[in-house]
Design brief:
Layout lengths: L42 H13 L3 H14 L5 H19 L2 H16 L11 H16 L20
Length: 161
């Protein structure tokens, strides 16, 4: 039996390379660069990095960046970062053609974002992201064609130009 790579707490981690949509590739394949398991960035850096990844069509990687913030951030912000990570997972499912999974996770993301009663920190566009997820869910439910450019939500409020 092959030994699995494990982190310092003994939990298994996957070292297999992944494609642009986060799907595992065979060992020795060339995949997209992985997001480090121990990534720690400021909230502004996290949002900028995740946005860049989303803009490049790398929603799975954006999810990993947002998940790191969820796991390492302050407890009073965990639900917000979790919902943002779920939004990126929902987009990943759309990219992979998994409509049912996308709708399920996008609903969870929308509900998580909508429950945030306080103004969102760091300029996160909670209302815009809830609307984005809800419209995407509606379009997926009626099998509307989703072009790749629609899968690049804006995480922070974009000032008018």
């Amino acid at each position: 039996m092959v030994e699995r790579d494990r982190d310092e707490s003994g939990r298994p981690r996957s070292t297999r390379p992944r494609d642009a949509l986060g799907r595992p590739l065979p060992q020795g394949s060339r995949g997209v660069p992985r997001i480090p398991d121990d990534l720690e960035l400021s909230p502004a850096e996290t949002l900028a990095y995740a946005q860049d990844l989303l803009d490049r069509g790398l929603a799975f990687n954006a999810h990993e960046v947002l998940e790191a913030a969820w796991k390492t951030g302050p407890s009073d912000e965990k639900a917000l970062w979790q919902a943002l990570a779920q939004l990126a997972v929902g987009v990943t499912h759309v990219q992979r053609g998994n409509v049912k999974g996308a709708i399920t996770v996008l609903r969870r993301a929308s509900a998580g974002l909508a429950q945030n009663d306080n103004p969102a920190p760091y300029g996160i566009d909670v209302a815009g992201l809830v609307d984005y997820a809800d419209v995407l869910i509606d379009d997926l439910a009626v099998n509307a064609g989703i072009i790749p450019e629609r899968l690049r939500p804006h995480l922070v409020v974009v000032p008018p130009q």
